[in-house]
Design brief:
- By secondary structure, this protein is mainly α.
- The chain is built from eleven helices and two strands; from the N terminus they run H-H-H-H-H-H-E-E-H-H-H-H-H.
- Helix 4 packs across helix 5.
């Protein structure tokens, strides 16, 4: 039985959505906008939810949100650390470590800075190159992150397993990028120690990519 406090979670989400102005997240208010804050779909989309699923949350119904969904909601709603922890508490989820993975917290000040970079592509990524948030210019330059979860969300993983991931980079630069990504994984493995997420990624890349296997892969 889930311990989700549906009623308070719904109230919290509605109140926080109403506080965010479209300009706070790089959106144009427009003459037809009927709400002072964000529309439901503008909160749902970055979190990987349908508008209907998010609406159910705001109505005090629906399934228990995953850790990744909660982290994405916290970023979209510009929650500080205490408010993010409260969101996780209402959803009956343990607060994940702030440093790693797609559930990592991005401080609201950094998100505000990203929004102000109107002429510079910029994005925030994890140490495994999973995109947490990006501004519109970054999305136009390198594309939106995939909806996939797990290892497939990592650009490092896609670089070695999906030829399409390399298409926007000149072919003559591919060996250099491969060496950089291998070095990044070596650094992550050393920093995290015996981390199962890194070990699984390395093992998978060794199986799937001869290039990766021959590049001097990190030990885990």
């Amino acid at each position: 039985m889930s311990g989700v406090n549906h009623a308070e979670l719904a109230t919290f989400l509605r109140s926080r959505r109403d506080r965010i102005r479209p300009s706070d997240v790089g959106l144009t208010a427009g003459p037809r906008r009927r709400v002072p804050g964000l529309r439901r779909e503008e909160v749902a989309q970055p979190a990987g939810l349908s508008a209907d699923c998010y609406t159910e949350l705001e109505r005090g119904r629906g399934a228990q949100p995953s850790v990744q969904v909660l982290a994405a909601l916290a970023r979209t709603l510009r929650l500080d650390g205490d408010a993010r922890d409260h969101l996780f508490h209402l959803a009956d989820r343990p607060v994940p470590p702030a440093a790693y993975g797609p559930a990592a917290h991005v401080q609201s000040g950094l998100l505000a800075l990203l929004d102000r970079l109107a002429t510079t592509p910029a994005q925030v990524i994890t140490d495994l190159h999973e995109v947490l948030v990006q501004n519109p210019l970054a999305a136009a330059l390198v594309g939106r992150p995939p909806v996939a979860r797990g290892r497939e969300a990592s650009f490092v993983h896609r670089w070695f397993t999906d030829p399409a991931a390399r298409a926007i980079y000149p072919a003559e630069d591919h060996p250099h990028h491969s060496r950089v990504f291998v070095a990044d994984l070596q650094a992550v493995a050393a920093r995290r120690g015996r981390d199962s997420e890194v070990k699984q990624m390395v093992d998978d890349l060794r199986r799937c990519s001869p290039e990766f296997a021959l590049s001097g892969t990190p030990t885990t």
